[in-house]
Structures are given as C-alpha cells and as structure tokens.
Amino acid sequence: WNRQPEIQGKYNIVIVLGGKGARKSLWDDPIVPQILTDHHRSGSIIGAMGSALIVLVRASLVTGEIPLPKDADSLKELETLNAVCVDIPVTHTNNIILGQSSDSVDSFSEKIFNLIDSDEY
C-alpha cells in the first residue's frame, strides 16, 4: 500500500475518520491496522477522529491519553480496551494526532499542518 516502484514516500499522512460507517467498516477490518502500522513504522503522520480512534487503539498504536469520543458506542469500546480518555479536542504524540469529533476538525487539521511544517515526524 505504500510500495510503488520509483515513488518513495507517496503517503506521508494517513487519516482515518469516524462516522456512521466506521464501526461496521473499520473496527474489525483485518487490513486497516496493518496498513496503519506499516505507515507508522515508515514515519508517516497518522491521524484519527471520532469513532476511528478505536482502530488505532486496537492496532496498539496509541498507548497514552486519547480524546474522549462523543458517541456512546466508541466510549464503551475504548473502556473495554482500557484506553485513557480525556476531555480535550486533540491529542498529539510523536507522529500520531487524534481528534475528539467533527467539532475538533479545525484544531486537528492545524496540528497536522504544524507537524508537517516542523519536520518533526
């Protein structure tokens, strides 16, 4: 998924968004965690918002605090996974940026652009 001849670093950022279909389409998908892990290892910025946070936690890419999701299903699943949720719009650790919900899109996007500009990832 990040391997194309003669093209290196094609995907510098991978963002997984929650929403109505995330629980059905992303939570139990066997390929998405592998893709995210590969991109994380290669140094890509990884972002997730809302109910897509579960995918990163299940892939063991998030070990610290994450934004408290606004939907009950996501919160219940994160509690099952022993995730530490805090009521803040965005968290950032190394090259992983997590957003609470669609209400935090502006600060989530700003954090991504700041990380790109800083060359810290």
TrEMBL record:
Name the record gives this protein: DJ-1/PfpI domain-containing protein
Source species: marine metagenome
Domain DJ-1/PfpI: 9-112
